[in-house]
Amino acid sequence: AAVAREGKRARTRFLDVRATPSPLSHPRVGIVVPRHGRTIVERNRLKRKLRELVRLYVLPDAHAIDFVIRVRHEAYSAPFGDLHRELLQAAQRLQHALAKAG
Fold first, then answer.
1. Residues 6 or more apart from 6 whose CB is under 8 A from it?
2. Residue 49: in which H helix or E strand, if any?
3. What average pLDDT score do residues 57-85 get?
4. Which of 27, 42, 75, 79 could form a disulfide with 71 if both were Cys (CB 3.0 to 4.6 A apart)?
């Protein structure tokens, strides 16, 4: 909850990503996929895509940062490559901003 209120924010066409320094020595990620009138199958598929992108591309480079990734309505129809690109850009931008701030 603190990340969503106080964290730095990077908003893209498909995602709203927030980050704050973690009190732990490792990164943590929360993924929020609102219903937006979609089925549970569509929501779960989108969650799996994002978890895989986070596992492969965000966590290996993240230091002690807590991320909350909130999916926007448009993400349900987004190609995988676009989600990948936007998530990486947002995560890198936030890590850079947090490094400058702290």
1. 20
2. helix 40-53
3. 95
4. 75
Over residues 17-54, the pLDDT tens digits come to 999 999 999 999 999 999 999 999 999 999 999 999 99
93/8 Cα distance (integer angstroms): 10
Q: What is the pLDDT of residue 82?
A: 97
What gap in Å lies between CA 7 and CA 21, rounded to an integer? 8
The CA distance from 88 to 85, in Å, is: 5
Start-to-end C-alpha separation, the chain = 21
Structural contact between residues 59 and 28, judged by C-beta atoms closer than 8 angstroms? no
pTM for this predicted structure: 0.92
Specify the DSSP element, H or E, that contains 3.
helix 2-6
Place of tokens 């701030």: 101
In the structure encoding, which two tokens stand for residue 34, read together? 């609102």
58 backbone dihedrals φ, ψ, rounded to 5°: -95, -50
